[in-house]
Amino acid sequence: MLGYPAGYTDVGFEGFQTVGAQVWMLSLGVLCELAAFLTIGLVRPWGEVVPHWIPLIGGRKVRPMAAVVPAALGAAALTVLWAFTPWWWTFPHDDMTPTGSLVVGILYLPLFLWGPLLASVTVSYHRRHRTPRRIRAVRWRRPSVRCRP
After folding, report:
1. Single pTM value for the model
2. How far is it, in rounded angstroms, from Cα 54 to Cα 3?
């Protein structure tokens, strides 16, 4: 993106030099950072009440399902998206140098855990914020005792 091939061969790097590719990489990077930042809302107080500085909705309580459903869908998508990373080295990377392929494989390997970890945080958030079930009052009856003469 900044003109440095970062492990790509000269031929493999040509596709990244277009404006469209640079906008795509920048947009994807910002989107991933925002998604990771929103994950923190599942464990912090601002995931329960919207901060006051946010226009229109600031100060309102966050409905639990408004956080749980997108987080669960995101966890499923991330799990599918990064499922291949443990097998990075089994795929051919002709557009990369051997060192570049090794470094990228090592750096991307933790992304394999992003989906399952987001799913666990989502389940925890859901358990903490679910509506408690009403405890049904059970009427205890005295057992009928018959007196025998």
Report:
1. 0.73
2. 37
